[in-house]
From TrEMBL:
<protein>
    <submittedName>
        <fullName>Acetyl xylan esterase</fullName>
    </submittedName>
</protein>
<dbReference type="InterPro" id="IPR008391">
    <property type="entry name" value="AXE1_dom"/>
</dbReference>
<dbReference type="GO" id="GO:0052689">
    <property type="term" value="F:carboxylic ester hydrolase activity"/>
</dbReference>
<dbReference type="InterPro" id="IPR029058">
    <property type="entry name" value="AB_hydrolase_fold"/>
</dbReference>
<feature type="active site" description="Charge relay system">
    <location>
        <position position="297"/>
    </location>
</feature>
<dbReference type="InterPro" id="IPR039069">
    <property type="entry name" value="CE7"/>
</dbReference>
<dbReference type="Pfam" id="PF05448">
    <property type="entry name" value="AXE1"/>
</dbReference>
<feature type="domain" description="Acetyl xylan esterase">
    <location>
        <begin position="1"/>
        <end position="312"/>
    </location>
</feature>
<feature type="active site" description="Charge relay system">
    <location>
        <position position="268"/>
    </location>
</feature>
<dbReference type="GO" id="GO:0005976">
    <property type="term" value="P:polysaccharide metabolic process"/>
</dbReference>
<feature type="binding site">
    <location>
        <position position="92"/>
    </location>
    <ligand>
        <name>substrate</name>
    </ligand>
</feature>
<feature type="active site" description="Nucleophile">
    <location>
        <position position="182"/>
    </location>
</feature>
Length: 319
């Protein structure tokens, strides 16, 4: 894939012209109030693993609707706390996977929660909420209205994940960081807006941003799911885009206040660079972006993990 989006000088200043829903804040206040009406009901069950340098807990907490959400909580084996805690959200169709996949942060001296996205294949958390007709995937589940849309539940779960992580005896709630790439980056933007006292957020090649542009310049999945839905549901563009506006990372970014590290691949046809810059340029807090000119959706890969690890340490005064 060669460069296909706007030239670099235009990307640096690119902004979305899409109007946000007038009741955006009221919608999310209502969603979180309804979610918090259910007890958090968090449990941490110790897990016996061969990871001698890391302790692992099997986590369950109540997300949207009181539905159980799973995760892995890990910490250095000899830690006594309090530790800064990193909450990490997965990419599309990812999840908590297996505990040994999450060694980076505890090896660096952090507590870490790897959390599922309900219904997606990489985890252990179902989505018990049904859906009207949709295309294959998750992007159009309940897209007829913001109240029924899939990512309303996902973002509410993500906020509760922060609350669950902060409740662990080893966690220092004042040093909580949210991180994620692709879908996880879009979720991180939402959490950064909905949890106002985070210490930092790291947003890598974020998905779920500037839908109005994304669905017209790429047919790669997952944005392609929306286009396929609209090929069948002719004339539903206004309804669909209105619903997507309630989960658009650009509007969450405008409410973010924690220091933020973004990343973008300029040849990324999954999350086009202009959609990433739309969120980055809207971000209201202190921010920095790492640009990978010849990379696609992998962004900076392991190289960027090292950049992110050092940046988080610097923000928390550990670097």
């Amino acid at each position: 894939m060669a460069l296909f989006d706007l030239p670099a000088d235009q990307l640096r200043n690119y902004r979305s012209g899409t109007a946000e829903p007038p009741d955006f804040d009221a919608f999310w206040d209502k969603t979180l109030t309804e979610t918090r009406a259910h007890p958090l009901a968090v449990t941490f069950e110790p897990v016996d693993t061969p990871l001698t340098g890391v302790r692992v807990w099997d986590v369950t907490f109540a997300g949207y609707g009181g539905h159980p959400v799973k995760g892995w909580f890990t910490a250095p084996a000899d830690a006594t706390g309090p530790l800064p805690v990193v909450v990490q959200y997965p990419g599309y169709n990812g999840g908590r996977g297996l505990p040994h996949s999450w060694g980076l942060w505890p090896l660096a001296g952090y507590a870490h929660l790897a959390v599922d996205v309900r219904g997606q294949g990489g985890g252990d958390t179902p989505d018990p909420v049904g859906s009207a007709p949709s295309t294959a995937g998750f992007m159009t589940r309940g897209v007829e209205h913001q109240d029924t849309y899939f990512y309303r539940r996902v973002h509410a779960d993500a906020v509760r994940a922060v609350e669950a992580a902060r409740s662990h005896p080893l966690a220092d709630p004042t040093r909580t960081v949210a991180v994620g790439g692709s879908q996880g980056g879009g979720i991180t933007l939402a959490v950064g807006a909905l949890v106002p006292d985070l210490a930092a957020v790291a947003v890598d090649v974020p998905f779920l941003c500037h839908f109005e542009r994304a669905v017209t310049i790429t047919d790669a999945n997952p944005y392609g799911e929306i286009g396929r839905y609209l090929t069948v549901h002719r004339g539903a563009e206004g309804t669909v885009l209105r619903t997507l506006g309630y989960v658009d990372g650009v509007f969450f970014a405008a409410r973010g206040r924690a220091p933020a590290l973004f990343s973008v691949g300029l040849m990324d046809d999954v999350c086009p660079p202009s959609t990433v810059y739309a969120a980055y340029n809207a971000y209201a807090g202190e921010k920095r972006i790492e640009v990978y000119p010849f990379n696609r959706h992998e962004g900076g890969g392991a190289h960027h993990e090292a950049v992110r690890l050092r940046w988080v340490g610097e923000v928390l005064g550990r670097g």
